[in-house]
Amino acid sequence: MLLAKYTKQEEKVRKSWIVLLSIGLIMAFTMPALGADVKFSGTYIVQGYYDNNRALASNDSTTGSREGASISDMWQRLRLQTDFQIAEGLKLTTRADIMERVWGNTTNNSIDGPAVFSATGTAQQEAYDETTRNIRFNNVYVTANVLGGVLKAGYVTQGAWGTDFGNTGDLVFGPRIRYEYYTGPWTLVAYYDWYDGTKPTPFNQSSAINAQVDSQEETPQVAVVYTWAKGNAGLKVNYLMNHTNSATAPAGYKTNYWQFNPYWKAQFGPVYTEGEIIYRYGKTFEYESDTVNTGDVQLNSWSGYAMATVDIKPAYVGGTLVYVEGDSPAVAGSPNTTNTAGAPGGVDFNPCLILFNYDSMRWNGGLGNPAYGNPVAPSTTAAFPANSSTSASGITNAYIIQVFGGIKPVPKLDIKAAVTLAKADKSVYSRNWISKDYGWEGDLTATYKIYDNLSYMVGFGYLWAGDYWKGTQAAGVVNNDYLLTHKLTLSF
């Protein structure tokens, strides 16, 4: 009995040692990760709007429209980035948007929510979307020093390059494999992007009659950047392959085109200048069947942006030029076989408070009166939002001239004024669009740094609406609009 009791005690001791040894092994394997340096950074934004007449409407017996109602709301977003430094040269990065919403709005319990740019004054997707109300991760990627360069793989912000013009960093996230190599002042880059929501399920690939195995959207890209003491310049070349419509009726088609994208940023004494050009060449519609009589639609288009500012402390003055080519109108009685629509100006590029302002569009709805019709891209028959000049990818069909100036009476205060003239590049002849005149806009903003990491901005914008907003109604009546906004931004 004594021996048996002693044996049981030994068994308990043996099990205890096994448990302790297991814990030790787990700690040994996970110690590098547990010892990782963790760094948090991000921004918290709260912004309020009062938009007096976003529909640019006036009492009009022709269409039965009435003067547009005002829009007033507040939106917020916490964007949190976390960097886990696992080892020297090895890092894991995540980024999430937290509680992104309009204050006081009720969700519709839908994952997708209403359309982002539905009719003027209606709820926007980000205001109601169930997925935006708590935590939405959009970046998770690994950065590693490999073979003298830097490898980055995972879900990243895909739409960022050069200047803010053309960028969609606030909107487009997806999988990417990227490799950078540095040699002197040169940076050589090669990467491959896949786009979310474009891969069919395996069941669709195998069972649908017209399904294509290559039904997806992706683009290989190469770039080079040269950096000097007071600036940098670069060139990106990519080839987009969009085969998501290869099984559509009456005949599938593919979109394949080259994009050439140079930019520059440079300081010359008191003058700072930057600019970017986007040129596209290829096919918007490359049909896979001869049953479509219109033939392939060629793509040949460009967009451009240039800005210069002169620092004459405590003041500064400058100017901005923007051009986004519009689509060539179709000739009556014949198909349109050329698409000249330039690459949109991007959602990160907001030159005005009302016109071409993606944030305002996002939270307050499309600009213009839907009763006057929606412009249609002749070669695609795809409707733009409301009759707005800004799509879900930024500025479309426009040339813009802006003159601005400002003063910093104290280091923490920046008061800026801008006057902008904007016109459409092409008339939408297929819908008998009345005019190309978007109008004039005057903006005044004041930004004060309460702390180094906390700023507060107040702004006032006034739009003298042009006849473009009459749409297809020659007898239509438009009215002007003004907007008040204030914005609190915390960065850390």
Model description:
The protein has 492 residues and is mainly beta. It has a single domain, classed as Porin (Beta Barrel), CATH 2.40.160.100. It has helices at residues 2-34, 125-128, 202-207, 358-364; strands at 37-51, 71-87, 90-102, 135-146, 149-157, 173-183, 186-194, 217-228, 231-242, 253-268, 271-287, 297-312, 315-324, 338-339, 390-391, 394-395, 398-407, 413-423, 437-451, 454-465, 481-491. The longest helix is centred in the first third of the chain and has 33 residues, at 2-34. Mean pLDDT is 81; it is low at 1-5, 109-127, 200-208 and 376-387.
The CATH level-2 architecture is identified as Beta Barrel
CATH class: Mainly Beta
Question: Low-confidence spans: pLDDT under 50, at least 5 residues?
Answer: 1-5, 109-127, 200-208, 376-387
β-sheet strand percentage? over 45%
Evaluate the radius of gyration: 27 Å
Provide the CATH topology. Answer: Porin
Mean pLDDT: 81
Tell me the domain tally: 1
Q: Give the distance, in angstroms, between the N- and C-terminal Cα atoms.
A: 69 Å
What is the number of E strands?
A: 21
Q: Biggest β-sheet, characterized?
A: 18 strands, antiparallel, barrel
Protein topology:
Blueprint lengths: L1 H33 L2 E15 L19 E17 L2 E13 L22 H4 L6 E12 L2 E9 L15 E11 L2 E9 L7 H6 L9 E12 L2 E12 L10 E16 L2 E17 L9 E16 L2 E10 L13 E2 L18 H7 L25 E2 L2 E2 L2 E10 L5 E11 L13 E15 L2 E12 L15 E11 L1
Parallel strand pairs: 12-14
Antiparallel strand pairs: 1-2, 1-21, 2-3, 3-4, 4-5, 5-6, 6-7, 7-8, 8-9, 9-10, 10-11, 11-12, 12-13, 13-17, 15-16, 17-18, 18-19, 19-20, 20-21
